[in-house]
């Protein structure tokens, strides 16, 4: 086991993706934990690797959440045997369609860009880990050709929360809820960090409330610190799925009705997120400026209010009233911040007050 080797979450996930793309037959869990950068530093041959295996389970969820297809292959003659399951990412899914072609000049630029990207994307440790995969009979000489990473930028709290989950440590942080003037300290047993609706959420047990809570990582203020001597017992796998199921149920239940000015940036962006099955409204030829109604799912009212307020006069909020009031409050704050007296006409556009 290598000492003093710190590997970021992004580095570990990236190395895992590369390893799983590089193999045709797939890798067993033992192969992954003993060879892939980010796992092998903590792997104990023949020892207790339970925490490392839990980390791998969470990483699998992260990879799938990023839209990367992760296949599980059972060994012939051993159905249901978890010990010999193999994992792989089908490389063929990243190949270009047969009808897509490039000119010689375009190919030259693509090859140059791929070379620069590949040389800059793999650390020396990752390159050594890929070399070690040769010992498993895996051809990893060109594992990333035609593939570009899509790992999302995460908040600063992601890394310490992930480490605390791996170690079963209770954490404390300051959390600023919308509408509150000051952040409050939360002491939490972190169970899972999941990506939903484009934002990272922490799912955990709030020790003060003695109940599970979900927190937006973007609202964590300042550092995440471990509570000295405070540990918790892992409740098994599936915590991430439980969190995603709760967020999905909330997202499905919440629907906002807004209108967007035809041809505006708001119309283009919001129309892509309308409720499934809703038909886009056709603009009225006699009134080309008629605002188009859209039904939008949302998880967090304040996050949506921030977004809609950013469109200014391009959107009208029709319902719910709480969202309408939140957007109006934000527009008034912006107006007052840019005027001396704050007595100009109240903003109407995004609040549903037709002019």
UniProtKB/TrEMBL annotation:
<dbReference type="Pfam" id="PF25583">
    <property type="entry name" value="WCX"/>
</dbReference>
<dbReference type="InterPro" id="IPR026881">
    <property type="entry name" value="WYL_dom"/>
</dbReference>
<dbReference type="InterPro" id="IPR057727">
    <property type="entry name" value="WCX_dom"/>
</dbReference>
<feature type="domain" description="WCX">
    <location>
        <begin position="294"/>
        <end position="331"/>
    </location>
</feature>
<protein>
    <submittedName>
        <fullName>WYL domain-containing protein</fullName>
    </submittedName>
</protein>
<dbReference type="Pfam" id="PF13280">
    <property type="entry name" value="WYL"/>
</dbReference>
<feature type="domain" description="WYL">
    <location>
        <begin position="158"/>
        <end position="221"/>
    </location>
</feature>
<dbReference type="InterPro" id="IPR051534">
    <property type="entry name" value="CBASS_pafABC_assoc_protein"/>
</dbReference>
